Amino acid sequence: MADVADTPQVVRFGVFEVDLRAGELRKKGVRIRLQEQPLQVLAVLLEQPGQLVTREELKQKLWAGTIVDFDHSINTTINKLREALGDSADTPRFIETLPRRGYRFIYPVNGAIVDTSVPVNGAPVATIIAPMNGAPILALPGGLEDASKVRQPAASWSRRRAAAVVMFALLLVLLVLALNVGGVRDQMVGGPGAVHVTSIAVLPLKNVSAGAQQEYFVDGMTEALIIELGKISALRVLSYQSMIGYRQTAKSLPQIARELKVDAFLEGSVFHSGERVRITANLIQASPERHLWAESYEFNLRDVVGVQGEVARDVARRIRVKVTPGERMRLTTPRPVDSEAYEAYLLGRAHLSKTATQTSWNKAQEYFEKAIDKDPAYAPAYAALAELYIRHRGKTRKSFDARLQARQWGEKALKLDETLADAHAVLGRAAQQDWDWSGTEREFRRAIELNPSHATARTWYAMYLYAMQRFEEAVVEARRAQQLDPASAHVNTWAGGAYFAAGRAEEAVASARKALELDPSFFDASVVLGRIHLMQGKYEEAIAELERALTFNQGQQLVLGALAHAYARAGHREKALNLVGELNRIDLEERGYTPFGLIWAYAGLGDKERAFALLEKCYQERYGRMVWLNVDPLLEPLRSDPRFADLARRVGLPTLASSPRR
């Protein structure tokens, strides 16, 4: 790095000069008012013109020892400096931003030559020289001497006329560029008109508040921005679940973009103190990597929902993505929310996203109920409670009660705000468990209409579609869900289920294995993979996978039932009967309630009487897995019995068709 002592005390560039000793910026000799911090940043940049000055260097030089939100402060400082210079982040003339790295002063300093003399078809072209007074001089191919001759009084008239023509042409080109006529500047330098973004990922926002206890708040803000952007149908927005894994990544943006197949990133920070919140947002194009836009939003916590919508609208405007009138309305009609209610809601979401345990469920419920108590008109809290109950119903013997409560909370949420995609998705799931097929389809489609990037809604819809034997439609939804949430074990597992039902065994195996790479303990993925192996006659592979799953999920009834089925089909009857005994003991001890484990075991053993007795009980209780009677591979040994077709008819399922996988 150049020593400050080596830097001239008066530095000139273009029509500007900086007097470092006096601490003044002048334009054509007239002093420009500029605060000390932007001037100090300019001085540091001018120490090493053309060289990258990292954000960390600036922080150490100018912000060391201060307690501030550095990201916000440096962005504000650079913006003020550009404003004073009449510069632009999009088409920089003086200060170039290198995303996530730092800044570079790119204009010639103190009469340096900007070398544009690249030969064209072997012939040299003119060079522009920026002398100390900032007035451009045209240098002809002969060099500086020729350039000086252009200004000699004794020059011939023809030479003066040629120089005038060239200067006029140059000025005309500069005018066209300055006015961006026909978008030509955008096309040349990659400005706004050249930005083509159809997919975006919101990187986990940084917590610049005091204390790690604010992480839940920052994560909640990240998820909220994803939800808001997801309302724009022309934009594919990666899910929160897939993005949270990039919180501490050392990967470059282009590398992340290749992994997620996205065009741009939104990153930034959150500062939260009491009732005040500040969000700093930066929009970055992935390839070629360049900074597109930055903004800071300071607001009262009561206005948080409105600001989230404002950020989404600003991003949409910046990348010029189409926003329909309905989407624009949904992004611009927020209501204030009680600050304590909002914080309780975010804490509930944090517990809901944790590994499912009774403790995490109880804490999530406690915080959602607190949010409702603080602000009875806050619709997302009701939708979150509905989601909690619909996801929890399979963990209790009172499945009907849980489903009923989920429906009640979901309906309450929609009375307050009909545009909540989460609530519609939950009501679709509840309608499915009530075997209300038209209601199921209506709610899932509405959820996806309101938030086309809702990966969970698309996954649930795909599962409903293959239950209805609409296999190709299911594949479309499953694939879209994977694009939106590629790092979700849940999404990849049930995409595998959809692919297998549609006769795409290779894709099914790949998706299930990807789910297990993401989470080796995710037993649903092991069950799906084990079922595929069974249907392919690969009994030992099915057994190996299900035994592996038991090491992570001891006593899990579905894994035990699937393994018992595999043992029986492979001829290991005694092992299968031992697992049946274990399943009956679990049932007696009331350690959860998953009757399909025993049903699968009995189906594998050929004990149709016990299998149908349990299926009839599930019919009476409207148990969740009855929806997939016609497509469940582990029920295959029962399908030839007339009782099976009668049961499917009473559930209201379509007439059993020949599955593509058979």
Q: Mind explaining what this structure looks like?
A:
Among the domains are: 4-105, Winged helix-like DNA-binding domain superfamily/Winged helix DNA-binding domain (Arc Repressor Mutant, subunit A), CATH 1.10.10; 119-188, no CATH class; 195-336, TolB, N-terminal domain (Rossmann fold), CATH 3.40.50; 553-662. It has 28 helices and 16 strands. The strands form 4 sheets. Strands 11, 12, 13, 14, 15 and 16 form a 6-stranded mixed beta sheet that branches. A 4-stranded antiparallel beta sheet has the order 1-2-3-4, with helices on one face. It has a 3-stranded antiparallel beta sheet with strand order 5-7-6. The longest helix is centred in the first third of the chain and has 23 residues, at 157-179. The chain has 662 residues and is of the alpha+beta class.
What are the SSEs and their pairings?
Blueprint lengths: L9 E4 L2 E4 L4 E4 L2 E3 L3 H12 L4 E3 H8 L7 H16 L9 E4 L3 E4 L7 E2 L12 E3 L7 E3 L4 H7 L6 H23 L4 H6 L9 E4 L3 E2 L7 H16 L5 E2 L2 H4 L9 H8 L3 E10 L2 E10 L4 E11 L3 H16 L5 H7 L7 H14 L5 H17 L4 H14 L6 H18 L4 H13 L3 H14 L4 H13 L3 H14 L4 H13 L3 H14 L4 H13 L3 H14 L4 H13 L3 H16 L7 H10 L2 H13 L21 H10 L11
Parallel strand pairs: 11-13, 11-14, 12-14
Antiparallel strand pairs: 1-2, 2-3, 3-4, 5-7, 6-7, 8-9, 9-10, 14-15, 15-16
Helix pairs in contact: 1-3, 7-10, 7-12, 12-13, 12-14, 13-14, 14-15, 14-16, 15-16, 16-17, 16-18, 17-18, 18-19, 18-20, 19-20, 20-21, 20-22, 21-22, 22-23, 22-24, 23-24, 24-25, 24-26, 25-26, 26-27, 27-28
